[in-house]
Amino acid sequence: MTSNLHLWLIPILPLIGASINGLLGKRFTRQVVSAIALSFCGAAFAMAVWISAQLSSLTLPHVETLAQWIRVSDFRADFAFNLDQLSLVMLLVVTGVGFLIHIYSIGYMWEEGGFYRFFAYLNLFMFFMLTLVLAANYLLMFIGWEGVGLASYLLIGFWFTKDSAASAGKKAFIVNRVGDFGFLIALFLMIKNFGSLDFSKVFASVASMPGNQDLLTSIGLLLMVGAAGKSAQIPLYVWLPDAMEGPTPVSALIHAATMVTAGVYMVSRSHVIFEHSTTALTVVAIIGTLTALFAATIGVCQTDIKKVLAYSTISQLGYMFMACGVAAFSAGIFHLMTHAFFKGLLFLAAGSVIHAVGGEQDMRRMGGLRNKIPVTFWTMTAATFAIAGFPPFAGFFSKDTILFKAANSPYGSWAYWAIGVFTAFLTSFYMFRLWFLTFFGQYRGEEPHGHGEHGHGGIHESPKVMLIPLVILAFLSIVGGWIGSERFDRFLAPTLHSSVTAVEAPSGESEGRAASELVFTSISVAAALCGFLLAWQLYHRRPELPQRIAHSVQGIYTTVLNKYYVDELYAAIFVKPLIDGSTKLLWHGIDRDIIDATLDSSAESAEHVSDTVRHMQSGNIRSYAGWISVGAAALVVYMVWTGGR
Amino acid sequence: MVPLSYYLVLSGILFACGVTGFLIKRNIISIFMSIELMLNGVNLSFVAFAAQWKALSGQVFVFFVMVVAAAEAAVGLAIIIAVYRTRETLNVDQVNLLKL
Description:
By secondary structure, chain A is mainly alpha-helical. Chain A has helices at residues 9-24, 30-53, 85-109, 115-134, 138-156, 163-194, 199-208, 213-230, 239-242, 248-257, 262-269, 271-275, 278-301, 305-325, 329-356, 374-388, 394-408, 414-439, 464-479, 485-496, 499-503, 510-541, 545-552, 554-561, 566-613, 621-643; strands at residues 62-72, 75-83. Chain A has 26 helices and 2 strands.
C-alpha cells in the first residue's frame, strides 16, 4: 500500500489557473496573468517531478479514486486516476514541455490582445490533457480527449476575427468529431461486452477471452479511428495543417508536442486489445506508414515555415503509429517523447524566426538569418539535426528504434521499413530545406518596419523569456535520446508488457542482433545524410535548381504543392453534398417550403377570415342589436319549423 | 273568452315594434322607450300563458320584470341626463368616445 499521492491535484491545478485567468483575468495586468498561469502550470510540473522522484517507493500501477461518478447496476465509472510508467512519461512530457511553452508564450504573446484569454485557454488545455493521461478508465480519458479538442478549437481560433482562423478552428473540431465518434462506439462496445471501462478490468477481460477476434478487431479499429482523428492520420489528417492559423506556441504545445500524440498514447494504453487482433495492428501500421510517407512528400513542397512543420508533425506521428502497428509500443512512446522535445523546439524556434522578421511566414522571403538571430539559429539547428535522425541527437535513437522494429518485429515487414527509411530521407531533406532557406543565403524579404502582429523594427533576436525555453528544449533534443531505447523499453515494460512482445528477441542471438542493428542504423543515417546533401545541393549551392526541377515535373509539382487535392476531394465528396443537402433539401425543401409554408398559409387564411368578419364588429350598438335580432329571428324560424315534432 | 293566440300575436307585434324602434331610432330616449315596449310585449305573453295554464309563476315573473324595468328606468334616465350634460346631444351615433 503506497501513500496517497493526490494525483487529482495535477490536473486540477491548471484548471484553477484557467478559472482565475478566464473569469477575472480581464482586470489583471499582463504580469499578474502570466504569473498565475505559470505558477499553476509549474505547480503541476513540480508535482509530476515530485512523484517521479519517489517512484522507487511506489507500487505501480497506482490507482486513486477521487469520487464516485456513474453507477448504473453493474456498470461503474469513477473519477479515478491511474499512475504507471506510461502515464508518468506522458505526465512529465506534458507538464515539462507545457511549462516551457508557457514561459515562451509570455514573450511571444506580450504584444497581443486577449493575453489573459490565451493563458486561460492554455491552462485549460493542460487540465484536459493531464486528465487524459492520468485517467484510469476510458470514460474519464474520453472527457480529457474531448476537452483537449475543445481547447484546441479555442486556441486555433484565438484570432477569431480572422476568417481563416475561425474556419480552421471549426475544421479541426469537426474532423476530430468524426474520430471521436469512432472512439465513442468503441467505448459502447466495451461496455456491452466487458461491462466496464476501467483499464484494468477491460484488459483482464480481453486477456481472458482471446477467442473473440471479431469483437477485438472492431474495438481496435474504432479506437484507431479516434486516434486517427486526434493524431491527424490518414484519412483525418486534414485539420492539422490548417490548425497552424493559431498562435505559434499553440502549434508547438497542442499541435506538435502533446495533444496530437494523445492518439499514440491511447493506442499504447490499449495495447492489450490491439495485440489480440492482428488485423487491427496491421491497419495501424499501414495507416502510420502511409501517413508518414504521404505527409513527408507534401512537406517537401510547402513554402510556409509552419506548414512544413505541420506536415512534418503528421509524418512523425505516422512513425509513432508505425511503431504501435508493429507492437513496438515503447518505441512509439520513445519517439513521442523525443518528438515532443524537438518538434516543440522547432515550432518555438520558427515562432522566434517569425517574430524576428515581423510576422512573415513564407520561407521564400527569409534567408541569411543565422547571424542576426544566433540563438534561434543554433537551437533550431539542434532540433533539425534531431528530427533528421543524426546521431547523437534525440530523434536518431527513437526513429532508429522504430525502423529497426518495423523490420524485425513479429508483426513487421520490409515494406514498412523501406517506406520508413525513404520517409526519413524526405524528412531530412525538407527539414534541411527549411534550415537552408531560413538561415543561409541572402535575406530575400523586405526590411520589417515596426508593423504587424509581431514586428517592432529591424530583424532582431527574441527576448530572453523566449530564448530560455529554446535553449532548454535544445538541450533536451540533444540528450533526450541518450536514455536509450533498451532502457526505455525496460522502464515501460510493466505497463506495455504482454505475451506478444515477450516472444521476440531470444537472448541467444544478441550478437547477430547487434550486428544487424548496426546495419539498420547505418542505412537510416545514410538516408538522413542523403537528405542533407540533397538539400544542401539544391538550396544552398545552386538555389536556382529547385525552380528548374519544379518546371520539368510541372504536373507532379503542382499536385504535391496543392497537397494532392485532398482538401478539394473531401470538399467535393463530403462537405459539398452536406451543404447542398442541408441548403436545398432541409432548409429550402423541408424547413422553408413545408414547415414555414404551412404556418404562413394558416396565418394568412386566419387573416383573410378575420378581415372579412371584422366588418361585423363596427362598434355601432344598433348594428349589434340588428345582428342579435336577426339571430333571434332565425332561431324562432328554426324552432317553428322543427317545433311541431 | 279571448283565445290565447290573440294575446300572443299582440305580444309579438309589440315586441317587433320595440325591436324596430330600437334599430332605427337614434334618439336615446326613443331607444329607451323601445326597450320598455319589448319588455311589455314579453310581459303580455307571460300573463297570457299564466292565465291559460292557471299557473302563478308567469305572473310572478311579470312582477320581477316590472321591478327590473323600473330600476332600469331610474338608472337609464340618470345616465341619459349625464350624457346630455356632457355631450349636449342625445344622438347615439355621436356618443362614440369608446370607438377607435
